[in-house]
Amino acid sequence: MNKEKYEIVKEYVISNQQKFYRLAFSYVKNEEAALDVVQNSICKLLECYEEIHNMKYLSTYFYRVIVNESLGFIRKNSKEIVCGEENIREEAYVQEYGVEGDDTVLQALDTLTDEVRTVVVLRFYNECSLKEIAKITETNLSTVKSRLYAGLNRLKQALREVENEER
Hints:
The chain has about 170 residues and is mainly alpha-helical. Helix content is about 75%, strand content about 0%.
């Protein structure tokens, strides 16, 4: 075991738990499921962290693991209803993303495809650079930019529709 790498991984996981949870929750919409996704992701990271050659790419690697785990959870549980009223904590989710008292942004995020939502969530909620997002999603930079642009346009449109409905 490489003790230096282990300490880097340990510190990274401990200091970024909330970001990991927010990312997983943005996909699975269930508190317990998000915690499970993060736990499984951390286990996968601990199993293979020694294979990471350059530790400066640790966050890129781990975000990719979380996204893949989240999508895997959704695929696995697509026939089951995983969102009971008691399990969803809309208020906490809204607070996590800084949208106070209004879940319209969250509803708008749900209208995006997985690929586009991933880019938007990583960019604005996890503050990743476009280059980092390209590495995380294993796509080229221009694809990330176009997904971000499309996602922002779709969010804008969805928010306008909600605003018009309220009038």
